[in-house]
């Protein structure tokens, strides 16, 4: 099924040696979720890398506001257990299409009755209510947003307009921030080795370089950690990461998600 | 310190700045050496006499301190099963230090179950100094530490300070953007992953505890170095520094294991003598000042050159 990232939903303070993930069956045939739902059975062995954390809880916050939509709830399950265990104040605002479609509805209601609010309503009304919630927060509140891209974009930009500092806004995306609707193949010359590599439309620059034996370190493969950065010497880059600053983008790119147009030359 | 286990820090014959970090596998933050008992006893004496100087913490660090307590005890038992053991029953832990014939019991995250803060407990069982850096949304901050063997710095002074600010006195570190790169490097360290680097300086006399607070006692020794006593008095001081990302609280544990080796011992190793000499010789004056070497650099060079000459003569 290739590489996928899933949120761990365990209570971080539990004393068990196990990890729990939740996977929504989104139904596309080649997808990782369909594979896990239909082809993986108890007792099967799956190779997994160690956990990463690109969406940490900021314990210096005075208050935590968690904003979830749909299956975007998953990272918040372990966060809420953590915050509850730490006795830190938080509130969850969780929107879904219906109570029936809302993953972990009863678990959340049971464990966090005072902290959680659900939104099963028309988009306009939900936006009105959520925006009011965001307007009315104490200084030092950190906002965490997870859900579909359009949901995250809406509320991140609303929070910015309200004056929340960037340091207080946190989001985890299921997939890279911007997706090239149709990724085109391109070619890359790596200056140190002098090798030229073809990057196919269905592969990343990182994959292509590594297949050619050029050792680029990597970690998240989502354009958020910055490990796989390379220097760009020449050519046009389409950046898809959420890590590099505008200044850094003038001379760097993250090979796991960003692509080139036509021909690029880079230095690892 | 045995010359065989000394972590010699130089690999090139010229001094150069770098983030010379390497990934550690397994990611153990501690090393037990032959000097374990001696150094632990010194540590505990310092803690008893000057607790405020050797241990400081901010309230926000408490949860990470618990995580460090459990982690380091786990690692001790895993790395040195004949010296340490750790057993667990639910949230109750029992740690046995067979080298010291001591036992520590606690209930995880229950502050009532311990008399000292968690970091202050675990630090008494390892040779390393342990520093906790909080990974905050606006940077890394020094939030707790048990520091008995500092090389000319003060825990009291830096508590609560930002990682970058602490390091700005290092010559050239700000202008080049170097410290920002190091900070971003640290901020990228993944959970349960550890990195190691070696840092070096020089201490006059075989003294591990050289805090800023007692500078008057040990700093004056710098004036007493001559080319005749340098071999005995001057010690290469190497800090093996490790950085580890705590998986639950997402903060950074920084451990510092300090090793001292007298020049007398160092020069017995032909290759080390040559490399050390070249590094000291090519050291820029601002770095020599920063490391406190300027006062006696000529005497050390004199000693090293004479030693090399003597060795050459012996071969002839």
Provide a descriptive summary of the structure in words.
The complex is a heterodimer of chains A (268) and B (316). Chain A is built from 7 helices and 10 strands. Chain A has helices at residues 32-39, 74-86, 105-111, 123-135, 149-162, 205-211, 246-249, and strands at 63-69, 90-95, 116-119, 141-146, 169-172, 186-190, 195-199, 229-238, 252-254, 259-267. In chain A, the strands form 2 sheets. Chain A has a 5-stranded parallel beta sheet, with helices on both faces. Chain A has a 5-stranded mixed beta sheet with strand order 7-6-10-8-9, with helices on one face. Chain B has 316 residues and is of the alpha+beta class. Helices cover 34% and strands 23% of the residues of chain B. Chain B contains 13 helices and 10 strands. In chain B, the strands form 2 sheets. Chain B has a 7-stranded antiparallel beta sheet. The radius of gyration of chain B is 20 Å and the shape is globular. The A-B interface holds A 12-13, 15, 50-53, 56-60, 82, 85-86, 142, 167-168, 170, 219, 225-227 and B 60, 63, 88, 90-91, 108-109, 134-138, 184, 188, 190-193, 247-250.
Name some characteristics of this structure:
heterodimer; A: 268 residues; alpha/beta; five-stranded parallel sheet; B: alpha+beta; 34% helix
- Give the fraction of residues assigned to helices of chain A: 10-25%
Main sheet makeup of chain A: 5 strands, parallel
Count the beta strands of chain B.
Answer: 10
Can you tell me the overall shape of chain A? globular
For the termini of chain A, the CA-CA separation is 28 Å
Residue stretches of chain A low in confidence (pLDDT < 50, at least 5 long) are none
Number of strands of chain A: 10
Shape of chain B: globular
Question: Which stretches of chain B are poorly predicted, pLDDT < 50 over at least 5 residues?
Answer: none
Structural class of chain B: alpha+beta
Strand order within the widest beta sheet of chain A: 3-2-1-4-5
H-E order of chain B: EHHEHEEEHEEHHHEHHEEHHHH
- Which H/E pattern describes the elements of chain A? HEHEHEHEHEEEHEHEE
